[in-house]
Amino acid sequence: MEQDRISVVIPVYNEEQGLEELFRQLLPVMEGMSRSYEIVLVDDGSTDASLEILRRHAGEKVRVVELTRNYGQHAAVFAGFESSDGGIVVTLDADLQNPPREIPRLVAAMEEGDYEVVGTIRMGRQDTLFRRIASRAVNAMARKITGVKLNDWGCMLRAYRREVVEHMVNSRERSTFIPALATTFAKRIAEIEVGHNERFAGESKYSLLKLVSLQFDLLTSFSEFPLKLMLYLGFFMAFFGMGFGAFLAVARLYFGAHWAAQGVFTLFAVLFFFMGAQFLAFGLMGEYVGRIYREVKSRPSYTVRRIY
Ligand code: UDP
Ligand code: MG
Predict the structure, then answer these.
(1) Distance of alpha carbon 192 from the chain centroid
(2) Which member of 87, 179, 190, 224 has the greatest number of CB atoms within 10 A?
(3) Exposed, middle or buried, 298 (CB in 10 Å: 0-12/13-18/19+)?
(4) Distance 93 CA to ligand 1 centre (A)
């Protein structure tokens, strides 16, 4: 690792129309910082001319990693992490929605505040209304799940310290949401405001289905709440069944056998109780599955920042 070097990691999936412009904007910015840098572009199984364009630019400062097929943005970024070695790693989208000229500010913010992760808040966001609403939901959920009060989780223009990147790479998780994972290994986290543009060319690579699946990744990799839900539901139903049964017994004594409709309602009460008990059992099993899941993810249970 080179402490002073900056690695820029960029996932690329069918971005042939915008890549030349990306290099045109990014290279001067990196040269202008007058420090050691590398740019790692990960071709995420593009089916257009992206790879050829990338390979034309490959060289001393530009590394191109070709994946065998399309694995998705976050997996591609992971691949980039693994073949980068800068002390500070910046992730960036290839479509120029995040302006490369913000990189120096991002790095400056990180170094001035000695932060481990610096995120960004997109000002004047140029996305469809639907995407903006969806982002709000994601942000609220991510805040709740991780307990970290960041404003904008979706923007991939972010800077990470090498240590945080190493912890992420060593976690070996299959599907994950990088900005959220990073916060589990960092305490000193900041956000700065950055500009946002429309896509330079082409279309968003995220279909509705892919967005939903990313959502699901976020929920299931960082929370065991869905598993716990069964436990809660079980408790609730069992208690409801018992309460209902008690109510029926009292009402039966009070209003007589005729009111109780030959025990039909008693049957319901018993049913609710047993259904509740079943959910409880599922929930308990879910608890164990959750523990297994946590083991399998093999996230370190702690990470040391420094020893004095
Ligand atoms: N991307 C990728 N693999 C995918 C989908 C997207 O590497 O399967 C890259 C894409 O080339 C771009 C970045 O991830 O550099 C963000 O994608 P996009 O701009 O389509 O997402 P949006 O801005 O709509 O959220
Ligand atoms: Mg984009």
Answers:
(1) 19
(2) 179
(3) exposed
(4) 7
Q: Count of alpha carbons within 13 Å of 232, Cβ hemisphere only?
A: 6
Residue 20, token pair as written in the block: 């030349």
83-131 residue pLDDT tens: 999 999 999 999 999 999 999 999 999 999 999 999 999 998 888 898 8
* Cβ of 248 less than 6 Å from ligand 1: no
Q: Percent of the chain at pLDDT above 70? A: 99
In a domain, 306, yes or no: no
* Residue minimizing CA distance to atom 16 of ligand 1: 93
Q: Can you give the residue range of the structural domain that contains 159? A: 2-223
The answer to whether the CB of 120 is under 6 A from ligand 1 is no
- Regarding the beta carbon of 206 and ligand 1, being less than 6 Å apart is answered yes
Q: Do 265 and 122 belong together in one domain?
A: no
Over residues 21-36, the mean pLDDT reads 95
Q: Are residues 254 and 203 in the same domain?
A: no
β-bridge partners, 38: 7
- Measured in Å, residue 232 CA sits from the centre of ligand 1 at 38
194, 223, 252 — which closes off a domain?
A: 223
Residue 35 counted as domain residue: yes
